[in-house]
Amino acid sequence: MNMKRLVSIITVGIAILFFASVVVFAVTTTLVVFPGNLQGWQTQVSPGLQPTPASTPSVTFVFGPATPPLGRGSAQLSVGSDGGAAAQLRHPGYAGTVLPTPIPSPTPTPSPTPPGELAPAFPASNELTALAYSTYVQSGGSGSQAPYIILNVDYDNNGTEDDQLVFEPQYQNSTDCPSFNQGNVTNGTWQTWNALNGCWYSKGGVAGSGPGTNVEPLRTITAAQPNARIVNSGDGGGGVRIVAGFGAGAWDNFVGNVDNFQIGVGEDPDTGTNITAYDFEPKAPPALASNGVIISELRNSGPGLPVCAAPTAVGIVCVAPGLPVSSGGDEYVELYNTTDNDIAVTSVDGSGGWSLVRRGSSCADPPVVVATIPDGTIIPARGHYLLAGAGYSLRGYPAGDGSSQTPQMRPRPTRPTRTPSAATPTSDSSTPLRPSTSHTASTPSASTTVRATPATS
Asked: For the chain, what is the domain count?
């Protein structure tokens, strides 16, 4: 074999291996959306036709439900009793974004485009390159509904709305969208939908598209309208819309949530798709700081719990239950967040959290870690966080629902001595602490409990 030809074959083979191993990257910027800073989003509600009682659609920002994809919360869309009403989030910042080219930009190949085929186009700087979001259905209307996307589009570049393109999760199953099956809508769980590669329909029927089995991939629609681009409404309403409602009967009493809305515009040849992820939250993100947290109360010995005898045939018999005895385990340390922002526990030394320590047996001995508040634990604004010993005398006090997403407000109990706020545990309280393996009666024991309470005013 000719040596020059052999070298050429080897070179092409290496090129094929190189391009086959190309990895597509993306640069994602996360923006937290909360009532004090909507990051450009607009909320909009539209009443239905039901006169009495009138429907009350709403857009709210809440903790949960369950564990959202980003952060601790989500945007909640409630339609009300008339499904013809609607609740929406709209963003005007993507006007002018052109919809994807009919032929997507693939992994590069060393070979030229075969004769008769169009060369794949690299995305334009203003081209839609990513669109995905997560939904959670609490109350699903007549069934299969989930918050959906509407894009207001302009086909002739005159700045006015010509059509609306709709992505509905209920049509992303194997029957309606066999080209990109994403499964059925399931109530009570978070689901993520890839809208860019999913199936859509045009309200104007472009490319023969329509609801149900007539949905088409987005690029099929853009092939019929290659100049399609996002446009805002004449009244300034955003052309990118997250919607629940606009369907009497089917959407009656619907309640659902959205989070982690991702949209990409353009693509960098080196870093990949430029994506913005919107994290919907009920309040500002926690500060990663310790400034502002103080020890508000502590006790190293208290009245303790009643002394109880060993179990008998009729149960545990307590000796003088009305007269608690002194107990070294009836102790606590209470932290208080003096700021108006939640604070996330963050260690600066890689220890995994903030630790409560006691000195060793002698000055030469290192401190002993009694308990650790793990990194990521949230101490609410103007709220408390409690470390309590095994003999803590108020440990039987009702402690809320155990969820930091919906903290329960409880009054302080009446008591003769100073003790911590009424204990409202959070999800953090279920995180095991790391108590020391040896301790004395003057330090919290291995069954140390942790509780966090919101401010009561």
From this structure: 2
